[in-house]
């Protein structure tokens, strides 16, 4: 499971301190060195590591901590709080449109898990809000993606609007939006194409879809297994398109998990969901404090 190594390393770094009755500034420094290494090994972005360790150190060497009765516990608490802060502090909910439909556009590289997430989100909205979503199949470059979305639609009993692969995604979205308005669907979930790498044509197309659909949310779906690359991808999608949230998939896998820790700081966009498996029920709402506890073990 994700974070196992990081958890172990962080616990090791902090356990030395826990054994001590009195903690010196040198002890804190040594612990911070180990935490820093653990984070870097888990693929956390260097700048994020620097900011995080600086904040923890500043608070930890504060006299009220070192002179307190249980300095080690206090420092563990500080690590937890600062980790939570790095992850975004609070859960950020989906932005809804004041009038239906709320439009949510999924973007990301090929294979990140966009189509799967669209299905998971539809299921989640149906369960929690009794929603009546419509999904639009906009990934015309990967014919299997359209079929995949249709299969998900059948499983969930959710309509999927598609026009095959010969019409431009922009036109598909235009017509899909018109249908959703006519049928009074409360959510429109747009599955878009991804490429293996970010390219200009892809971004131009996404920008056009954004203009037509006026989405309330542009959710970037990234694969946690891609580590640092996920952070770079998030950064450039954000700069080009202005993402409103991030979905991190495959956190169930054997990932070092650093992406989850870096993405919020690097993009400023909140992580809204995490994918924890291939099944439609493997979706979790992202809670920074719970994720921090999970990482610290
Ligand atoms: P897309 O190209 O971005 O639409 O990606 P897909 O939705 O087709 O997903 C690519 C692969 O990743 C598929 O085999 C999915 O089953 C798998 N996948 C998606 N989300 C998760 C997840 O959270 N965990 C795991 N283990 N696999 C996932």
From TrEMBL:
Its EC number is 3.6.5.4. One of its GO terms (molecular function) is GTPase activity. It catalyses: GTP + H2O = GDP + phosphate + H(+). One of its GO terms (cellular component) is signal recognition particle. Residues 270-283 form the SRP54-type proteins GTP-binding domain. It is found in: Cytoplasm. It is an enzyme of class 3 (hydrolase). GTP binds at residues 108-115, 191-195, 249-252. GO terms for biological process: SRP-dependent cotranslational protein targeting to membrane. It comes from the Bacteria. Involved in targeting and insertion of nascent membrane proteins into the cytoplasmic membrane. Binds to the hydrophobic signal sequence of the ribosome-nascent chain (RNC) as it emerges from the ribosomes. The SRP-RNC complex is then targeted to the cytoplasmic membrane where it interacts with the SRP receptor FtsY. Belongs to the GTP-binding SRP family. SRP54 subfamily. Composed of three domains: the N-terminal N domain, which is responsible for interactions with the ribosome, the central G domain, which binds GTP, and the C-terminal M domain, which binds the RNA and the signal sequence of the RNC. Part of the signal recognition particle protein translocation system, which is composed of SRP and FtsY. This is Signal recognition particle protein. It comes from Enterococcus phoeniculicola ATCC BAA-412. The gene is ffh. The chain holds residues 1 to 297 of 472 of the full protein.
